[in-house]
């Protein structure tokens, strides 16, 4: 059961990432984040009410609030990076977010084992190889790598904070609801400021009603992925669940190849693969 739910998590996260990046090519990233997360917030609110998650409220929710502030920054940067592409490089590099929880553990006195140390070395090598060809190109390509690494840092921070925000499954739903509530508030405020400064909240044709199902899918797939991961972690070794769930970049890369016909240079493919391998080693360690 652990493997089944963990693989479902990787599938849902990978498709959500692909959908978010694709939508950002037509709709401003802030709008994608706000709308998709609003839909997710409504659904999570219903789940919290249905499961009695309010009983889990306590001081730990402040970790969820902090995660809610970091989340929009990470998502906006990630969707922008995916929109600039190629997704087959951006998505695996973003999995370096696992380095943040590892760093927190080091700060608290933990020491990495041989597998974790190897994972760090492999992941860094992957970043250099995947980003190197871009660094000699146009500025926009450099920005893509920078945006991806900022997103990875933000996602890793969110993962570390959410881990401290709950100790039960119902508490996790409440923490995720609080996080997304702050996501919507922070993202909405950023969108308002952007519009006041002359930015665009909508594409030239107005609100993309035709894209509403896709926006809903992105938000709901993210929620469902968190739920399936929680089930996987509850029914088996967390290490197994984490390793299998971290395969979601493969789904994004395959979707980009299948739907967008993306092709990678050999050095980029090698770097992306090493970054993903390093992430798996870190998770397994």
Overview features:
single chain; about 280 residues; mainly alpha; about 80% helix; about 0% strand; globular
Care to describe what's here?
The protein has one domain (2-202, 216-284). Residues 133-140 have low confidence and may be disordered. It has twelve helices and no strands. It has helices at residues 2-23, 29-51, 61-84, 87-94, 99-107, 114-135, 139-165, 169-196, 212-234, 238-245, 248-260, 266-284. It is mostly helical and 285 residues long. Helices cover 79% and strands 0% of the residues. The radius of gyration is 18 Å and the shape is globular.
Spans where pLDDT lies below 50 across 5 or more residues? 133-140
Question: What coarse outline follows from CA principal-axis ratios?
Answer: globular
Helix content: over 70%
From the N-terminal CA to the C-terminal CA, the straight-line distance is 22 Å
Question: Taking Cα atoms only, what radius of gyration do you get, to the nearest Å?
Answer: 18 Å
Count of separate DSSP helical elements: 12
Query: How many E-type strands?
Result: 0
Q: Compute the average pLDDT.
A: 77
Question: What kind of assembly state do the chains in view correspond to?
Answer: single chain
Order of helices and strands: HHHHHHHHHHHH
- Structural class by SSE content: mainly alpha
Strand proportion: under 5%
Number of domains: 1
Largest sheet: none
């Amino acid at each position: 059961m652990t493997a089944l739910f963990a693989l479902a998590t990787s599938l849902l996260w990978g498709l959500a990432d692909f959908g978010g990046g694709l939508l950002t090519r037509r709709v401003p990233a802030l709008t994608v984040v706000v709308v998709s997360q609003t839909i997710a917030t409504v659904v999570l609110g219903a789940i919290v009410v249905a499961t009695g998650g309010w009983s889990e409220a306590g001081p730990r929710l402040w970790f969820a609030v902090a995660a809610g502030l970091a989340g929009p920054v990470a998502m906006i940067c990630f969707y922008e990076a995916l929109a600039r592409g190629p997704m087959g490089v951006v998505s695996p590099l973003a999995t370096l977010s696992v380095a943040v929880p590892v760093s927190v553990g080091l700060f608290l006195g933990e020491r990495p084992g041989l597998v974790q140390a190897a994972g760090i070395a492999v992941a860094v090598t992957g970043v250099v190889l995947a980003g190197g060809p871009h660094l000699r190109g146009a500025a926009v390509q450099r920005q893509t790598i920078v945006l991806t690494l900022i997103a990875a840092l933000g996602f890793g921070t969110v993962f570390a904070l959410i881990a401290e925000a709950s100790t039960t499954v119902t508490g996790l739903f409440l923490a995720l609801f609080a996080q997304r509530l702050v996501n919507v508030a922070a993202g909405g405020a950023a969108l308002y400021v952007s519009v006041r400064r002359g930015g665009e909240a909508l594409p030239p044709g107005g609100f993309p009603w035709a894209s509403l199902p896709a926006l809903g899918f992105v938000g709901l797939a993210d929620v469902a992925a968190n739920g399936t991961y929680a089930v996987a972690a509850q029914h088996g070794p967390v290490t197994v669940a984490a390793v299998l769930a971290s395969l979601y970049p493969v789904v994004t890369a395959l979707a980009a190849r299948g739907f967008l016909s993306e092709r990678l240079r050999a050095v980029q493919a090698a770097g992306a693969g090493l970054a993903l391998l390093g992430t798996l080693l870190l998770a397994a360690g």
